[in-house]
Specification:
two-stranded antiparallel sheet, Alpha/beta knot, binds S-adenosyl-L-homocysteine, 258 residues, Trp Operon Repressor, Chain A, alpha/beta
């Protein structure tokens, strides 16, 4: 897949493919990231691409012409592509969007700066995506997050032992907890089931913990899911066990030891 990022800070964006899975995706030929400096399309000698807002007020606005020219050049370079603007006003970036976008042959990603782009550029954009309900000073970090997340879903980008299918959100649930050596650490043990070698029991425990983590931390995710009979049973068990554990905690709190 090709991703071309339009930005005032190409060196910043390119950092995302210098590490980890995005780097491996590039090395394996699964991902080609290019960045295009919007200043190269400035109409002015000083390479500026911002100007004061009509109507007054603070901040500067990205001029439409350099952006339109950069977009046209990007389309020529990567061919048919979905054009995305990173924006706090966009749809929240979700795993569903990441998986959908990973299927595309090419993406063009526009990073805003200042107060954002002149509104008339919006006509050339297919989709606005947001990293969340907060305001960044530029779209680069959001674009890098998108590139990183999408690269995990390119077939072959993750090793055998790391499957994106097991991560949080893949099945609509949060991930189960993970443990590594040592078996005893500062008075805390690894759950016995993980040492049992019984793969069925381990799978059952992990599903129960994934359901439980989702129930505790993100109950909103459970509302959108249809659980099968075994999952319903596992979640019941988790809730019952959590209630017992909580009961003990409250009991202790009612009888504090001096
Ligand atoms: N005045 C704009 C914010 C501009 S911030 C507004 O309030 O809507 C400058 C640029 O940072 C934006 O054009 C966008 O590209 C990027 N940006 C800021 N917050 C973002 C977010 N939550 N998600 C994605 N991009 C964001």
């Amino acid at each position: 897949m090709k991703i071309e990022v339009l930005t005032l800070f190409p060196e910043l964006v390119e950092q995302v493919v210098r590490y980890g899975i995005p780097r491996r995706a590039v090395e394996a030929g699964l991902l080609a990231l290019s960045s295009r400096d919007i200043r190269d399309y400035s109409e002015r000698g000083d390479r500026r691409v911002d100007d004061r807002p009509y109507g007054g007020g603070p901040g500067m606005v990205m001029e439409p012409e350099p952006l339109a020219r950069a977009l046209a050049a990007a389309r020529l370079a990567v061919g048919p592509a979905r054009t995305i603007a990173m924006s706090p006003q966009g749809e929240p970036l979700s795993q569903a969007w990441v998986r959908r976008l990973a299927q595309e042959p090419a993406l063009i990603v526009l990073c805003g700066r200042y107060e954002g782009a002149d509104e008339r550029v919006a006509g050339g954009i297919d989709l606005e995506l947001s990293l969340g309900d907060f305001v960044l000073s530029g779209g680069e970090i959001a674009a890098m997050a998108l590139v990183d997340a999408v690269s995990r879903w390119l077939p072959g980008a993750l090793g055998h032992d790391q499957s994106a299918q097991c991560d949080s959100f893949a099945a609509g649930l949060l991930d189960h907890p993970h443990y590594t050596r040592p078996e005893h650490w500062r008075g805390r043990r690894v759950p016995e089931v993980l040492l049992s070698g019984d793969h069925r029991r381990i799978a059952r425990w992990r599903m129960k913990q994934a359901l439980g983590a989702t129930w505790l931390k993100r109950p909103d995710l459970l509302e959108g899911l249809v659980l099968n009979d075994e999952q319903v049973e596992l979640l019941r068990e988790f809730i019952a066990e959590a209630a017992i554990a909580n009961g003990e905690v409250e009991h202790e709190q009612h009888h504090p030891t001096a």
